[in-house]
Amino acid sequence: METEYTPPDGPLVVLHEDAEVLLVDKPAGLLSVPGKGPHLADCLLTRIQAAFPDALLVHRLDRDTSGVMIFALTPYAQRHLGLQFEKRMTRKTYVARVWGVPVEKTGLIDLPLIVDWPNRPLQMVCHETGKSAQTEWRVLKDQGDTARVRLTPKTGRSHQLRVHMLALGYPILGDPFYATGPARDFPRLMLHSEELRFNHPQGGHSTKIRAKAPF
Predict the structure, then answer these.
(1) Whole-structure pTM over 0.90, yes or no?
(2) φ, ψ for residue 159 (rounded to 5)?
């Protein structure tokens, strides 16, 4: 398990900004929020707040995942968006590259997840005490020993997409926690939050913001 934290250094990539919300393209390798200890203080939230002092956290992405993240710019917007995430009214779509090529081209993974306490922060499938978790998946492209897939989580459990694809037998490439052997030998976790759909806090209209996967 990796312990060294060397976040990428680069300018913020702003995808959309208005009076209520800010959407950015988070780079892989950068924490969403500060970790424990001063060596983990650098994160997307602090970088955002340096440029947008009123920015408020709404949700998170794993450190190694890249892609669309939304921040609120007013307390009202934070409450509005927070409820949408809580009630599963948002729609998040991810792109990933996985080891192996699924025989089926689409499916639904319905496996309950729980933290693997002796190996925190790892998660695991547990049918006795795990929390309900569902992920829709679809193969986009066969790439030889690997495949490009689109993942649509129906729930928002920690490491859900990573553990679900591992349980299916197709670990996400470059995953420092769950991939082994040649599947792990990639420069980054090949998981990207490609699109977020939400109801805008100002007026309630459906809004879709995308960021193209860098792999």
Answers:
(1) yes
(2) 60, 20
